[in-house]
Design a protein that fits this description.
binds copper (II) ion, alpha+beta, Immunoglobulin-like, 2 helices, 24% helix, seven-stranded mixed β-sheet
Length: 172
Amino acid sequence: MFPPERVWWKPLDRMEKNWVTIAFIWCLFMTAMMPIWFFMGRQNVPVTSYRVEPQAFQQKVMDFAEQYKIGDENGVPVVAPPPGDVYLLARQWQWYPILQLKKGETYRLHVSSLDVLHGLSIQPTNLNFQVIPGYDYVIELTPTDSGEFSLVCNEYCEIGHHIMVSKLMVTE
Ligand SMILES: [Cu+2]
């Protein structure tokens, strides 16, 4: 066993200096990208959100589903609302209701959770949003493609997490 040298540090050699400089410049670049991306990025997190009582939000979604219901799939209503405010509730372990939207129309998609933290992932477009109980997140959404999109929960929400899948339909 040998003790460490008394002066263990040595001046940086050229190679190390170069890498430290590159890493530092990269840090500055990445830091600058955060605000730049916020204004320039085409996909950003929703900036509009409201405080909401989870129970009240659920009631709102139920009334909304009742009003625009056109069908039923495994007990979950299929809902075709007009452009404007539409609602989606996450709860253990279900997305409610199934939305049928129209391509090219603009919707304000309100998303919230009744119980725990969920994650709304729209596939295969790879859009991801946090779904937080107590907050109504408003996502401005204009579908540019028609078809069936999968909704999965990408935030572990206990035992039934893996069955929390649904879909979003977009018609021409
Ligand atoms: Cu979930």
